[in-house]
Write a structure and sequence with these properties.
Its EC number is 1.1.1.2. This is alcohol dehydrogenase (NADP(+)). InterPro entries: ADH-like_C (IPR013149), ADH-like_N (IPR013154), ADH_Zn_CS (IPR002328), CAD-like (IPR047109), ER (IPR020843), GroES-like_sf (IPR011032), NAD(P)-bd_dom_sf (IPR036291). GO terms for molecular function: alcohol dehydrogenase (NADP+) activity; zinc ion binding. The chain has 346 residues and is of the alpha/beta class. Strands 3, 4, 5, 8, 9, 16 and 17 form a 7-stranded mixed β-sheet that branches. The protein has a 6-stranded parallel β-sheet with strand order 12-11-10-13-14-15, with helices on one face. Helix 4 packs across helix 10.
């Protein structure tokens, strides 16, 4: 069992620190991946600080992983040493339930195994991508197309699929008006992908501070939600609203922006409960929904789509010793738009 350098949270809310963990030995269908880049997702912060419930410590966050294959198990057929690969938010599932068979491993009835802050089927904890290497079953490993640089591809393994999946499922495309709530790590990817799908895109952000970026990335319109006139001007406007924010919304106000049969889909996950007046759904036959990443097949589809359309994440590359500072900056919305760790600095 190899010992690997990592950055880990030793306990809830403690700063991350450099340490080591043991990776499992390479099994029959496993690939050993040299990690080159790992994105920092807001969910890393939620979990490292027990925001979504009790964590497993020491915790090695990171589920936006890009690198190359260093070795393969004897039964591996999909990958060879040197291949460019990625790992997203899950590394195993039951493989037998209806959802797994349908390519919806993220909704596995037996419980998908998360890339970190979870447990493998043998009970051992999972450790994520703030690390030099990771061992993953080939069936949960993604191929990163040559057209995508590994550093800007890393955030696609969470931010990309988290926004691609609902946009596809709710049929964003030509003739559809799509609003994206929030212009951050998830939001900027939603803008790029919705635009590439052919939808007319509007950004709804607290202020107009990122307006130039939003328009550059594909939005046609950009509005400040801090201005009450926005909700009057845009009433009954959108077919689909994708909320990427991790804070509670005034859902009644946002639902008023939907056309009849429109959907408001949440991919951000606030730590606090939310409230809703059900008349906001009844009037207009509207839908309030959620979406959680995507399955392995859809994640590969997303990577291929992004390569075809030249879509990568807008990143700020950092060294490992800057991780704790990056966490604080994420909480202040002080990043455009995804921190990515250069794991060579571990």
């Amino acid at each position: 069992m190899p010992t690997i350098p990592v950055y880990a949270a030793p306990s809830a809310k403690a700063p991350l620190e450099r340490t080591t963990v043991e990776r499992r030995a390479i099994g029959e269908s496993d690939v050993l991946i040299d990690i080159h880049f790992a994105g920092i997702c807001h969910s890393d912060i939620h979990q490292a600080r027990d925001g979504w419930g009790e964590g497993i410590y020491p915790m090695v966050p990171g589920h936006e992983i890009a690198g190359t294959v260093a070795a393969t198990g004897p039964g591996v057929t999909r990958f060879a040493v040197g291949d460019r690969v990625g790992v997203g938010c899950l590394v195993d599932s039951c493989r037998e339930c209806d959802n797994c068979r349908a390519g919806l491993e993220q909704h596995c009835s037996g419980g998908a195994v998360p890339t970190y802050n979870g447990r493998h089927k043998d009970g051992e904890p999972t450790y994520g991508g703030y690390a030099k290497q990771i061992v993953v079953d080939e069936n949960y490993t993604l191929r990163i197309p040559d057209a995508l640089p590994l550093d800007v591809a890393a955030p696609l393994l969470c931010a990309g699929i988290t926004t691609y999946s609902p946009l596809r499922h709710w049929n964003a495309g030509p003739g559809k008006k799509v609003a994206v709530v929030g212009m951050g790590g998830l939001g900027h990817m939603a803008v790029r992908i919705a635009h590439a799908l052919g939808a007319e895109v509007t950004v709804l952000s607290q202020t107009l501070g990122k307006r130039e970026d939003g328009l550059r990335l594909g939005a046609t319109h950009y509005h400040a939600t801090s201005d009450p006139a926005t909700f009057e001007e845009l009433r009954d406007r959108f077919d689909l609203i994708v909320s990427t924010v991790s804070a509670p919304l005034d859902f009644d106000r946002y639902l008023s922006l939907l056309r009849t049969d429109g959907a408001l889909v949440n991919v951000g996950a606030p730590e606090e409960p939310v409230s809703l007046n059900l008349f906001s759904l009844l009037m207009g036959r509207k839908t309030l929904a959620g979406s959680n990443i995507g399955g392995i097949r859809e994640t590969q589809e997303m990577l291929d789509f992004c390569a075809e359309h030249g879509i990568g994440s807008e990143i700020e590359l950092i060294e490992a010793h800057q991780i704790n500072d990056a966490y604080e900056r994420v909480l202040r919305s002080d990043v455009r738009y995804r921190f990515v760790i250069d794991t060579a600095t571990l």
